[in-house]
Amino acid sequence: MRLTADIWVSAYLARLRQVEIPAFIVQKGDPTAGAVLVKLNTLDGAACCYQRSFDLMTGDRKWVILVEGPEGDVDTSIVKQRGFDPDLWVIEVEDKQGRHLLDDPSLA
Asked: What is the mean pLDDT of the segment spanning 21-41?
């Protein structure tokens, strides 16, 4: 059984708060089945956007980089993705150390 998008987002934000990593919802998507993008803003003018991907070989779901580079370019890419998918969630994480916790087993 898969978690709904809104439950996963709530758990993700709570986990980030536990280690004092600021994050907020930029775009609220479909509560049950919306895809989630996570933008990591390192507060130095650069950013990286992650999306959840399905590995056909192993059946695993993992977070992969959708786009990275200057923050403006990443934002432009996210706006395009939102145009394709109005149910999309966008979460922005702000951390100078580049922490996003997407590899944390508790969030798998």
From this structure: 95
